[in-house]
């Protein structure tokens, strides 16, 4: 079909590799500059990651991160920056937990209902930003950030005991009530209470769906075309406004799924300690993985690794914030190195084309001389 | 062609994933380090709440208890801090690791540990688990350390109403959760019972799941400035680390601040502003932690609900500030209110 493009592949890998290497080096420099052994914390992190229980935490977390990254990536491919994944994820998790606790249905139906509610709520919340963008030209960056803040307040209000919240006797926590066991997603048990959330596999499977939908369907083509140039896509018959709303809806629906591994596999209720910030990590992962399903998978594992492997550093006398520093440096390094690699790629291409032209010209003149 | 290679990559990636999760299994994070019991020394562990050690407040109080146990009981103390945005699985992991390393007791600081303790405690029947601020999880090896925060806050309300010249006082809650509402309820009732015409300005810094209100001093500072501008001259901040910002703001304007959890007048990190700290509502987390560790060391772990109220000096009002000690009428009013609460003549509300 196509010639195997070695250059493109090498350049594709160069970006992330350059970013990671420089981020790790910078972390070591920061550690050394503050008078901390630069090697030992990193060695401890690798050691931590070799333990079975930490590995399970990493895989489970990676599933959640991967879903959030997919949600962000769908927007990115369409040239839309959905910063609201975090709010969509939290609101969806909360409301689907409420619905899940309120009903009892036979197993698969119960699960399906919870998942559908989560997707619907996520899509609804991002859809607001989509409609505002399509109809009124409001930047989705601004509207999704604001919707995040609104989601926080809305959840806080809904979680009051006079509304949907439940406060268990003697507890200072607020929950949405426990989901009956029929609404728990089956997990892969590895013995000794270690469990891989079943929904983690759904998350990775969605990566394949994402790849297929974007690269092998008419819709995916329209989406990428609109992302590349809205006016050109419009000229070739794509309804750009409809595409904006549709892609925001899909992005939000996937964002809504991001809470499912945690909700259906672990807590079975939405409580005050439900994790936040997942959507923002998703942005980092989508950037690092360059919106590619495989790249994001690796990036999700990397972020989960940094999170979980750094968690017990403080018990060895090192600050666990080393992990946070590392994540921050990765983000900066990604932006810088991708730009460097892009420029290098363009220069290289120009050079190559120049050389080929010159060679062609030389050949022509030789022929002329011979004639 | 391209499609096949992509699919192959995905396949390899997931196979590698499955392998890494199962093949090299069996080894747990806690198997590595020699358990303290082998080295002959007993040890106790605490797992911190949001903010971690160094919050000059709630977590530091728990740390003080552990520290005291280290010196008085000659045990080894272990600590673990949470990561931002972590889930329940991470808390389960942390407690499991601490328990498996042989620490006894293992104490979860804060109600957020309740679901995790419910899962971990049954797996370690010989380890005592403590949880602060929660009585919803119970078991044969779970100690629930709870406090009557509203009673201490009531006394703060009495002191604030007496010390205020403008008749306006401020309450700053870190995060709008039921626990902090207990502080607000007690404080407001104390103010109103002392001076029915007084005005209480109430404000929460953040709403859950945003717990910045316990962690970011700038939020506390901004809120306190707002209340001071609105005429308040005593500000009570129940906001963990964020409360130190409120204390700073009150100090800058020469007004009173009331601290929380620890006796903040004596906190090294707040020494610069201590003259403005009228008093602190103490919550004797430190003693509760120490007592539990001691009971385990004595071989008679105290299990079940252990409630610390005004009667047992589990909550109270600090009097370290010499200026506070000079205010005879304030102290008299506070003492009277304290006696009335202990004698059950006053019942303090737990929700506003």
Automatic annotation (TrEMBL), chain A:
Record's keyword terms, sorted: Cell membrane, Membrane, Sugar transport, Transmembrane, Transmembrane helix, Transport
Residues that span the membrane, as ranges: 56-76, 88-105, 111-132, 141-160, 196-214, 244-264, 270-288, 295-313, 325-341
Coiled coil: none
Lineage per the UniProt record: Bacteria, Bacillati, Actinomycetota, Actinomycetes, Kitasatosporales
Intracellular or extracellular location(s): Cell membrane
A UniProt-annotated Pfam family: BPD_transp_2
Record carries keyword Transmembrane helix: yes
Entry protein name: Simple sugar transport system permease protein
Entry keyword annotation includes Transmembrane: yes
Membrane protein topology class: Multi-pass membrane protein
Xref: CDD domains: TM_PBP1_transp_TpRbsC_like
TrEMBL record, chain B:
The entry's keywords: Cell membrane, Lipoprotein, Membrane, Signal
Major localization listed first in the record, in broad terms: membrane
InterPro entries listed in its UniProt record: BMP_lipoprotein, Peripla_BP_I, PnrA-like
Signal peptide region: 1-23
Pfam families: Bmp
Organism superkingdom: Bacteria
Sequence ranges assigned to domain ABC transporter substrate-binding protein PnrA-like in this UniProt record: 49-337
UniProt subcellular location: Cell membrane
UniProt topology in membrane: Lipid-anchor
Family the entry assigns: Belongs to the BMP lipoprotein family.
Name of the featured protein: Basic membrane protein A
Record organism: Streptomyces avidinii
């Amino acid at each position: 079909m196509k010639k195997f493009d070695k250059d493109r592949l090498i350049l594709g890998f160069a970006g992330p590799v350059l970013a990671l290497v420089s981020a790790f080096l910078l972390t070591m420099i920061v550690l050394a500059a503050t008078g901390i052994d630069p090697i030992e914390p990193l060695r401890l992190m690798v050691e931590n990651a070799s333990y079975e229980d930490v590995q399970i935490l990493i895989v489970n977390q990676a599933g959640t991160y991967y879903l959030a990254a997919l949600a962000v990536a769908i927007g990115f491919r369409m040239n839309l920056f959905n910063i609201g994944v975090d709010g969509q994820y939290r609101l969806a998790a909360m409301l689907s937990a409420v619905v899940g606790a309120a009903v009892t249905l036979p197993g698969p139906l119960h699960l399906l209902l919870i998942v559908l509610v989560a997707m619907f709520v996520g899509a609804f919340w991002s859809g607001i930003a989509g409609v505002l963008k399509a109809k009124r030209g409001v930047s989705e960056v601004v509207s999704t950030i604001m919707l995040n803040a609104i989601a926080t307040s809305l959840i806080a209000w809904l979680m009051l005991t006079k509304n949907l919240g439940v406060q268990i006797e003697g507890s200072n926590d607020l929950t949405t009530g426990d989901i009956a066991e029929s609404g728990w997603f089956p997990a892969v048990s590895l013995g000794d209470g270690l469990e891989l959330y079943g929904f983690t596999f759904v998350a990775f499977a969605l990566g394949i769906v994402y790849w297929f939908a974007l690269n092998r369907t008419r819709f995916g083509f329209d989406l990428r075309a609109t992302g590349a140039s809205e006016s050109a896509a419009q000229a070739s018959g794509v309804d750009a406004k409809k595409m904006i709303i549709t892609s925001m809806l899909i992005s939000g629906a996937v964002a809504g799924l991001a809470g499912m591994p945690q909700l259906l596999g672990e807590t079975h209720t939405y409580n005050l300690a439900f994790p936040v910030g997942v959507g923002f990590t998703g942005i980092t992962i989508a950037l690092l993985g360059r919106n590619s399903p495989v790249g994001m998978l690796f990036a999700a594992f990397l972020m989960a690794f940094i999170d979980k492997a750094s968690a017990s550093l403080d018990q060895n006398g090192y600050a666990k914030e080393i992990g946070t520093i590392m994540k921050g440096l990765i983000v900066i390094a990604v932006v810088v190195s991708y730009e460097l690699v892009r420029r290098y790629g363009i220069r290289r291409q120009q050079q190559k084309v120049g050389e080929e032209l010159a060679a062609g010209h030389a050949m022509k003149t030789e022929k002329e001389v011979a004639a | 062609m391209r499609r096949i290679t992509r699919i192959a990559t995905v396949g390899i990636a997931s196979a590698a994933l499955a392998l890494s999760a199962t093949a090299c299994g069996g080894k747990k994070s806690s198997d590595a380090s020699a358990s303290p019991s082998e080295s002959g020394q007993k040890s106790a562990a605490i797992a911190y709440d949001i903010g971690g050690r160094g919050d000059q407040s709630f977590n530091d109080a728990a740390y003080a208890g552990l520290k005291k146990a280290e010196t008085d009981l000659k045990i080894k103390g272990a600590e673990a801090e949470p990561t931002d945005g972590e889930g329940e699985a991470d808390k389960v992991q942390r407690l499991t690791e601490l328990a498996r390393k042989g620490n006894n007791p293992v104490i979860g600081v804060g109600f957020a540990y309740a679901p995790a303790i419910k899962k971990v405690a049954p797996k370690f029947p010989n380890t005592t688990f403590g949880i602060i601020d929660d009585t919803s999880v119970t078991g044969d090896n779970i100690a629930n350390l709870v406090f009557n925060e509203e009673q201490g806050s009531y006394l703060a309300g009495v002191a604030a109403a007496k010390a205020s010249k403008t008749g306006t006082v401020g309450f700053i809650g870190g995060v709008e959760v039921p626990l902090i509402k207990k502080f607000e309820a007690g404080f407001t009732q104390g103010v109103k019972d002392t001076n029915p015409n007084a005005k209480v300005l109430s404000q929460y810094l953040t709403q859950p799941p945003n717990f910045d209100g316990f962690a970011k001093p700038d939020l506390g500072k901004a809120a306190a400035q707002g209340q001071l501008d609105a005429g308040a001259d005593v500000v009570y901040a129940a906001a963990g680390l964020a409360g130190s910002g409120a204390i700073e703001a009150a100090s800058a304007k020469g007004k009173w601040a009331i601290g929380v959890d620890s006796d903040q007048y004596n906190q090294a990190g707040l020494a610069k502003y201590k003259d403005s700290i009228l008093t602190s509502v103490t919550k004797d987390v430190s003693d509760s932690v120490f007592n539990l560790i001691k009971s385990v060391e004595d071989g008679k772990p105290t299990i079940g609900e252990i409630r610390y109220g005004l009667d047992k000096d589990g909550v109270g009002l600090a009097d370290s500030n010499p200026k506070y000690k000079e205010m005879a009428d304030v102290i008299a009013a506070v003492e009277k209110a304290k006696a009335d609460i202990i004698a059950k003549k006053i019942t303090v509300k737990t929700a506003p």
